[in-house]
């Protein structure tokens, strides 16, 4: 703790931007690990390593090191997605916006960016299990990121509203 924190006896709260960064990073890493587990149990034919295929040379990218690097890289890309949510959608308080965000990311990766990743088959050629698992994974990711950011935004707005609200005399003895 720094001197300012020690003198006041409590830690400063995390800034909203720091929360967005950590939410994006954690969400990307956590849900990528879940995706990898889904790959191991044959729920999907896509593993996190597809991220490295267009850029990395060598067979290392298909081993454990490639998996770890891919999961961390997805965490960094996820931070960008979390910032996009922060900039565009943070004021919406409904879970449906977060679900739509996850579906939009799924469409972006599996349809728009599909040609970049050679080991991901074209969308219409993917197995039904892969599509269902991936949509569910992206929806859960969207709900995690979206609800975390929207909740923090609503808490900040509530705090501002409480600070702005004039205090009222609850006793009713205003003239005394």
Describe the structure.
With 176 residues, the protein is mainly alpha-helical. It has five helices and no strands. The protein has helices at 3-8, 16-40, 64-88, 95-112, 128-164. Helix 2 (16-40) crosses helix 3, helix 2 (16-40) runs antiparallel to helix 5 and helix 4 packs across helix 5 (128-164). The longest helix is centred in the last third of the chain and has 37 residues, at 128-164. It is elongated and about 65 Å long. The relative contact order is 0.14. The mean pLDDT is 88.
Question: What can be said about this structure in brief?
Answer:
This protein has 176 residues and is mainly alpha-helical. The protein has helices at residues 3-8, 16-40, 64-88, 95-112, 128-164. Helix 2 (16-40) packs across helix 3, helix 2 (16-40) runs antiparallel to helix 5 and helix 4 crosses helix 5.
SSE ordering = HHHHH
Strand content of the residues, in percent?
under 5%
Mean pLDDT: 88
Query: Structural class per helix/strand content?
Result: mainly alpha
Please give the share of residues in helix: 55-70%
């Amino acid at each position: 703790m720094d001197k300012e924190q020690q003198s006041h006896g409590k830690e400063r709260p995390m800034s909203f931007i720091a929360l967005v960064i950590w939410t994006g990073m954690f969400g990307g890493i956590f849900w990528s690990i879940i995706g990898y587990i889904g790959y191991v149990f044959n729920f999907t034919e896509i593993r996190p390593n597809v991220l490295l295929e267009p850029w990395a040379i060598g067979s290392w990218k298909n081993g454990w090191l490639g998996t770890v690097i891919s999961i961390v890289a997805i965490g960094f890309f996820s931070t960008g997605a979390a910032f996009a949510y922060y900039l565009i959608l943070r004021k919406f308080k409904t879970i449906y916006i977060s679900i739509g965000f996850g579906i939009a990311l799924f469409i972006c990766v599996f349809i728009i960016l599909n040609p970049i990743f050679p080991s991901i088959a074209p969308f219409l050629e993917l197995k039904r299990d892969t599509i269902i698992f991936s949509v569910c994974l992206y929806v859960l990711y969207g709900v995690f990121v979206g609800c975390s950011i929207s909740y923090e935004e609503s808490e900040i707005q509530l705090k501002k509203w409480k600070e702005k609200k004039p205090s009222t005399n609850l006793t009713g003895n205003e003239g005394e």
